[in-house]
Specification:
This protein is about 65% helix and about 5% strand. With about 425 residues, it is mostly helical. The strands form 4 sheets. It has a two-stranded antiparallel sheet. It has a two-stranded antiparallel ribbon with strand order 3-4. A two-stranded antiparallel sheet has the order 5-6.
Length: about 425
C-alpha cells in the first residue's frame, strides 16, 4: 500500500491558500501527503492543545517515586509508537473508506469549492484500533514486572475496560456504516458498559455534603443506584462529545483537552498521595495514566488531519470511543464527579439542547450554523440550540477556524475552573 504511486490533483482555495493533494479522479487522499498546511494554524493548534500539558510535565518531573516515573515513561514510549503508526495509517485507511463509498461533504463549506470535496469518513476506527493495540501490548509488557499477584483484581477491571472500549469502537463504526437512529445511540453505550459494571469492585457510597449530614449522615450507601449513575455517566460521556461537534477539529480537540486534564488530575493525586505501589491511589491513578497516555498520543495523530481545513472526518467511531475511554477511567479510578467538572461545556451544550433533543421543538439532523459564501464566515441560527450556534449569536459571524479555537479555549477555561472547584471549593462543601 505504501508503494502506491498516484498522480495528484490539487484542490485550492483562494481564501486560505491551502492545498489539498487528492487522487485526480475520486479525490483520494494521498498516503504521503504532509499534514502541515499553514504554519500559523499549527501554532494556534499547538498553543491551545499542548499548553495545558505543561502542568502535567511539571508534576511528572516532581514525582518522588523513580519507579513510578519509569513506568509512566514506558507507557509514553508505547504511546509514541502508537502515534507514529496511527499517523501513517490514517491516509491509507482514508483511501480505503473512499473506495467503500464512506465519505462526507463539509456542510460548513457548502457552496464553496471545498464544500464539493469528498472527505473520508469514520477515521476514528484507526485511532481506536491503534489505541487498543498499544494498551494490550503495554499490559503484556507490564505483567512481567509490575502486576503481581496482588494486582489480579486490577487486571480484571483492566480487561473489562478494554472490552467496553472495544465494544464501543465496534458500535461506533457500525453507526458510521449503518447510520443508526438516535434511540439506538442511547442503548448501545449502556450495553457496552455492562462488562465494566460487572467487573467494578469499588464502593457504592458517597460523601454527603455538609449541609445535609444531619439528615443522611456523613456517608450514604447508594447501592444499585450508584451503579445506575455510573451507567448513565457512560451514556452521557459517549453522546455529549457526539452532539458538541460539526466544526473541523472540534471533536478531537475537546477530547484532547479533557484527556490532558485527566492526566494532570492523576499526577496531582499521585503527588499528594506519595504512597507505595500497593496503595489504592497508586493502582487506580496509574491505571488511568496507562489508558490516557496512549489515548492522547493517538488522538494527536488524528487532529493533525482533522484540524481546519479537515482532510478526514472522525465519525461517530471516535466520539463513542473517546467518551467510553473517559467513562472507563473515571469509573474504575473513582473520580466520576471530577470528570464531570471537565465536561462543563458538554453539560452546558446538553442542557441548552435538551428541549430540541427530546423533540419538544423541531430538531434538524445537522444543527449546524449557516455558511455565508460571500464572507466565508459562519452565522448562528437561533433555532439550532447548541453551543456552537450560541457562540455565534453572542459574537456574530466568525470563520470556522476562529469559532473552533474559541470553543476549545472555552473548554480549556472550564477545565481550569474544574480544577479550582475540585481542589479549593469542594473542601468547603464536603
Amino acid at each position: 500500500i505504501w508503494g502506491l504511486e498516484e498522480k495528484e490533483a490539487v484542490v485550492s482555495t483562494q481564501s486560505t491558500g491551502v492545498q489539498f493533494p487528492f487522487k485526480s479522479t475520486n479525490h483520494y487522499l494521498h498516503p504521503h501527503t504532509p499534514f502541515v498546511s499553514q504554519v500559523n494554524m499549527d501554532i494556534t493548534l499547538f498553543g491551545i492543545l499542548f499548553f495545558p500539558l505543561l502542568p502535567a510535565l511539571y508534576l511528572f518531573l516532581n514525582l518522588h517515586s523513580t519507579q513510578l516515573q519509569y513506568n509512566i515513561l514506558e507507557s509514553a514510549v508505547v504511546a509514541l509508537g502508537g502515534f507514529v503508526v496511527a499517523y501513517r495509517l490514517i491516509p491509507v485507511v482514508a483511501k480505503l473508506t473512499l473506495d467503500a463509498q464512506m465519505f462526507g461533504m463539509d456542510l460548513n463549506k457548502k457552496g464553496s469549492k471545498m464544500g464539493d470535496v469528498r472527505i473520508p469518513e469514520g477515521l476514528g476506527i484507526v485511532v481506536g484500533t491503534v489505541f487498543l493495540i498499544c494498551v494490550i501490548l503495554f499490559q503484556v509488557f507490564q505483567s512481567f514486572h509490575f502486576f503481581g499477584a496482588s494486582m489480579i483484581s486490577s487486571l480484571v477491571e483492566y480487561n473489562a475496560a478494554l472490552t467496553s472500549i472495544c465494544m464501543m469502537i465496534l458500535l461506533g463504526f457500525a453507526d458510521d456504516v449503518l447510520n443508526l437512529r438516535w434511540r439506538y445511540k442511547l442503548v448501545l453505550p449502556a450495553v457496552a458498559t455492562l462488562p465494566l459494571l460487572v467487573a467494578y469492585q469499588g464502593g457504592t457510597s458517597v460523601v454527603v455534603p455538609i449541609p445535609l449530614r444531619e439528615i443522611f449522615g456523613q456517608v450514604l450507601d447508594l447501592g444499585l443506584v450508584y451503579k445506575l449513575y455510573l451507567l448513565l455517566l457512560a451514556i452521557f460521556c459517549t453522546n455529549s462529545i457526539n452532539i458538541l461537534a460539526g466544526l473541523n477539529g472540534l471533536e478531537v480537540g475537546q477530547s484532547i483537552i479533557i484527556a490532558v486534564s485527566i492526566i494532570t488530575h492523576n499526577l496531582v493525586e499521585l503527588t499528594i498521595n506519595q504512597g507505595g505501589p500497593n496503595t489504592t491511589v497508586f493502582s487506580t491513578h496509574v491505571m488511568s495514566l496507562f489508558f490516557m497516555i496512549p489515548y492522547l498520543a493517538t488522538s494527536i495523530s488524528l487532529i493533525l488531519y482533522n484540524w481546519y481545513p479537515s482532510r478526514v472526518f472522525v465519525g461517530d467511531t471516535y466520539t463513542y470511543f473517546s467518551g467510553m475511554c473517559f467513562a472507563v477511567v473515571a469509573i474504575l479510578c473513582h473520580f466520576s464527579k471530577t470528570l464531570l467538572l471537565f465536561f462543563i461545556p458538554q453539560i452546558i451544550n446538553f442542557l441548552y439542547s435538551l428541549i430540541q433533543l427530546f423533540g419538544i421543538i423541531p430538531c434538524p439532523r445537522h444543527r449546524l450554523p449557516k455558511y455565508n459564501n460571500n464572507t466565508g464566515k459562519l452565522e448562528g441560527i437561533p433555532t439550532n440550540l447548541n453551543l456552537i450556534n450560541l457562540f455565534l449569536i453572542i459574537t456574530g459571524p466568525l470563520s470556522e477556524r476562529t469559532l473552533c479555537v474559541l470553543v476549545l479555549s472555552f473548554q480549556v477555561l472550564c477545565c481550569i475552573g474544574g480544577f479550582v472547584i475540585r481542589y479549593y471549593v469542594a473542601g468547603l462543601v464536603f
